[in-house]
Structures are given as structure tokens and as C-alpha cells.
Design goal:
Radius of gyration: 31 Å
Strand content: 35-45%
Length: 401
């Protein structure tokens, strides 16, 4: 007799009401969280995109303003610093009257000849120009163009979710086109002689003891018996910068020789040759940056040197003949004088540079190694704040050789 196998049926119990409520609640919370994350991500993207667009548009027009105004021959009129709808009128490099102006009705920054302005960008909520005199004191009220030493530009753009403010600095054209020569007379008395950009002397009765010699690019200045005072066209405490030049040393001895020195109570040596190491040095606040190897291995030989300082990333780089020879990170803060510069001498006039200097350039940007090599090759790289080719000294229409 066969006994039938028992059939066991597994009981599948349904969700209780409590469990169902928990499941539905959990799904709701997860869905809500996902919706919140997606919503936040969308808002973050829109916020970041709006800010990025404003910054790019603002930086592009600010760079154009700075480049254009640096090349201007003269400033004609500038709005008071309190005017949020600012304007600046100037004589262009082509001897044409031009203007930058904020159109408050359209929110557009306009540029061109005053009678036919064109829009550069929109979303501009304010444009101000703050002018400074030779003592770096802000000028208030109506500004007389002849009193202007430099102009700070501030542009504010307002988008759907962001407001971005950018600033730039321009130095008065008249100060970029003149330098001073410190030079002794036959009795040893020193004279402060103002000269033009082509180094034609404004006072023909005082002899300039700087002489013209064979240079690396063309001619060069011999700094054995004189030096130059360059205008304060850059504030090393507020902006990154690049200084480049060709140098030739007559002799190597136990003397410190100055190439660049900033003036003023807090002025530091920008480029100098160590008295016993033949290395190049600079001061970045309290930090000294030196080349990792001797530079002046031979006398009467030209070397191209460049100092690049990035104050945002706090780095300093030395280049010699286009080669990166030293990099210093965490170079410290930059608290410097806003004075001008001596080329070829200390701010106390001694020690001087014992040799020649050629093709001096100052930039307020960080140049790359490729840029440095192009400068070394004599190329026109970017828009230097100052460029002194040191080719000729002219007095009474006569070139002094």
C-alpha cells in the first residue's frame, strides 16, 4: 500500500499595513532626497555657469581697456571716482579721441569715438575710475588730467544670480614715456636729468654720462658711470609680474652689483648679482630667491635673465637664457614700496651695475617659459608696461655714441 507523499505548501504572508506604510514612506523619502539633490545640482550648475560667464566677459573687456589705455598718448577727461557710470576719454595711439563709457540705460560698456560708441559687453552695473597722483594719493572731485599718475579701473557685472567685480590698473602715458638719469658731472656732483623715451635729454646743458655701447639686440647702455630711474609703473605688492633684460658684466669680484632696485622706504632689490657667488638674487618680502647655479661664468658675455613672480600662487622663478634655473614655492606675501625703480644702481646709488644692460621689459603678468624664449629672441610678446630698448641717447638732435 502506497502512502501518498505529503504536500507542504509554503505560506507567502502578505505585507501588513504597518510594513506597507514603512515601505511607501521610505520610497518617498528616497525620491524626495533624489529630487532635492538633482534640484540643488541644477541650481549649483546655473549659479556657477552664471558666475563663470560674468567673470569671462568682465575679464575680457577689462583686459581690452587696460591694453588700450596703456598705449594711449594722453588722458583727456576722467569721471570722478564717485561716479558709478564712469567714463574716460583719451588720445589713442593713432591720435584719435576715443572713450570708454558705461551706458546706464542699456547696462552696456561702450567703446570708440565719442560720437559713435559701440557696445563691448552687457550686464555692467557700475564702472568707476579712481585716479591717483604722483604720491599715490587718490584724487577726488573733478580730476585734472595733468595731475593723474595712474588710474584704477573697477567694473561690476550683475547676472541672474551673481555679482562679479574686477579691477585693473593703468599708469599715465606721460610717465611711461620718460625716465630719469642720475649722472655725475666733472666735479662729482650728481644731477637728476629727465629724458624722453628715446633718451633725448630735456636739459641739453647737463651731460649724460651714460654711454652707448654694442648691445645684444642692437645697442646697449654702459652703466659704469650712471644709472636710470624708471617710473613706478607697477605695484609689486598687488600684481604678478615679469622683468626681463640682457646683461653683460665687466668683471667678477667680491662686489654686489645691482640690476634692478625698487625705490622708497620699503624698496627691495629686484635683480642683483651676489658679491661672491656669481648667482642672481631677488627679495620676495623676507624670502630671498637665488639661482641654483652660478650665472656669470664669464665676463664680457651677454646673458638674458628673467624674473617671474606669481603673487597668487606665491611662486618665484628665475630664467637664464630661456632656461628655468630656480623655482621657489610659498614665497611669502608681497609688501613692497610703490616707488619707482633704479636700473643699474641701488636705491642709495651704490653699488652700481658694472657693465651693460639691453632691452629691458616690465610686464604685469606671468610669462611662460615659451614667452620668455620669444622675448629673448627679440619678439614683441604681449603688452609690456614698459619697454626700454636702450639704443640711443639723443641731445640737440645728435646721437651720443
Amino acid at each position: 500500500m502506497q502512502i501518498a507523499a505529503k504536500q507542504y505548501i509554503k505560506c507567502r504572508r502578505a505585507f501588513t499595513l504597518v510594513e506597507l506604510i514603512l515601505v511607501v514612506g521610505t520610497i518617498g523619502m528616497v525620491t524626495g532626497a533624489l529630487v532635492g539633490v538633482i534640484g540643488n545640482s541644477t541650481r549649483d550648475y546655473e549659479f556657477g555657469s552664471d558666475r563663470s560667464t560674468l567673470f569671462q566677459d568682465g575679464q575680457a573687456v577689462l583686459d581690452q581697456m587696460v591694453r588700450t589705455l596703456r598705449q594711449a598718448k594722453a588722458f583727456a577727461a576722467v569721471s570722478p571716482s564717485t561716479d558709478q557710470a564712469g567714463y574716460i576719454t583719451y588720445t589713442s595711439v593713432d591720435d584719435v579721441s576715443e572713450q570708454f563709457k558705461l551706458n546706464t540705460q542699456t547696462g552696456e560698456l561702450e567703446y570708440g569715438q565719442p560720437a559713435s560708441l559701440s557696445a563691448l559687453t552687457g550686464n555692467v552695473s557700475s564702472l568707476t575710475f579712481t585716479c591717483y597722483d604722483t604720491d599715490a594719493v587718490a584724487l577726488t572731485g573733478a580730476v585734472e588730467p595733468n595731475d593723474i599718475k595712474s588710474v584704477q579701473i573697477e567694473i561690476t557685472l550683475t547676472g541672474t544670480q551673481n555679482t562679479v567685480t574686477l579691477t585693473g590698473r593703468v599708469y599715465c602715458p606721460k610717465d611711461i614715456t620718460s625716465v630719469y638719469v642720475w649722472t655725475p658731472d666733472s666735479s662729482g656732483n650728481e644731477h637728476h636729468v629727465e629724458v624722453n623715451a628715446d633718451f633725448s635729454q630735456r636739459d641739453p646743458n647737463i651731460k649724460c654720462n651714460l654711454t652707448v655701447a654694442q648691445g645684444q639686440v642692437n645697442n646697449a647702455f654702459d652703466f659704469s658711470e650712471g644709472w636710470l630711474e624708471l617710473p613706478p609703473i607697477i605695484n609689486r605688492g598687488l600684481t604678478s609680474y615679469t622683468f626681463t633684460c640682457w646683461v653683460l658684466l665687466y668683471k667678477r669680484d667680491g662686489t654686489t652689483y645691482i640690476i634692478f632696485q625698487q625705490l622708497g622706504p620699503k624698496g627691495r632689490s629686484v635683480m642683483y648679482r651676489g658679491k661672491s657667488t656669481n648667482k642672481l638674487y631677488t627679495w620676495l618680502n623676507k624670502h630671498r630667491l637665488e639661482t641654483s647655479e652660478a650665472v656669470f661664468d664669464a665676463t664680457d658675455q651677454w646673458y638674458h635673465i628673467a624674473l617671474v613672480v606669481d603673487i597668487v600662487n606665491k611662486t618665484g622663478i628665475w630664467y637664464v637664457d630661456g632656461k628655468k634655473v630656480k623655482t621657489k614655492s610659498n614665497a611669502g606675501s608681497n609688501k613692497y614700496s610703490t616707488g619707482g625703480f633704479h636700473l643699474g644702481a641701488h636705491k642709495f646709488r651704490a653699488p652700481q651695475w658694472n657693465g651693460r644692460i639691453d632691452d629691458v621689459r616690465m610686464y604685469d603678468v606671468v610669462l611662460s617659459q615659451s614667452d620668455i624664449k620669444d622675448v629673448m629672441a627679440g619678439g614683441e610678446v604681449g603688452s609690456p608696461l614698459g619697454w626700454w630698448k636702450l639704443d640711443v641717447i639723443i641731445r640737440d638732435s645728435t646721437i651720443l655714441e
